[in-house]
Amino acid sequence: MNEAAGPSFLPFLMLLVFFLFIYFVTIRPQQKRVKDHKAMVESLKRGDEVITSGGIIGVVDRVKDRYVLIRLGDNVTINMQKEFISSLLPKGTINNIETQ
């Protein structure tokens, strides 16, 4: 006689493992990057050397609520949103670039 086959949890378990894998491989690292970027943007201060998402390198001249004034050179400044600062550079990086 045939045994009654109960509900199989294998497809559900495989789906759960798949979603956990996606979470730990893609979603969680992205959330960490966003959190780190937000902390970096909020810690900006005058004199920090930064690079923008467009590749512009400059020195923070003034920090406002949502905007930052970046000095690119003598008499050249740009005003941009803080969110477009991609990273802080180590102190002295701009001087090293200019001498090369």
Which features would summarize this protein structure in a list?
alpha+beta; five-stranded antiparallel β-sheet
Characterization of the model:
This protein is an alpha+beta fold and 100 residues long. The mean pLDDT is 89. Helix content is 40%, strand content 29%. Strand 1 and strand 2 form a beta hairpin. The chain has helices at residues 10-42, 93-99, and strands spanning 49-52, 57-63, 67-73, 76-81, 85-89. It contains two helices and five strands. Strands 4-3-2-1-5 form a five-stranded antiparallel sheet, covered by helices on one side.
User: What proportion of the residues is helical, as a percent range?
Assistant: 40-55%
Structural class: alpha+beta
Low-confidence stretches: none
Q: How many extended strands?
A: 5
Question: In brief, what are we looking at here?
Answer:
This protein has helices at 10-42, 93-99; strands spanning 49-52, 57-63, 67-73, 76-81, 85-89.
Topology:
Elements: H1 10-42, E1 49-52, E2 57-63, E3 67-73, E4 76-81, E5 85-89, H2 93-99
Antiparallel strand pairs: 1-2, 1-5, 2-3, 3-4
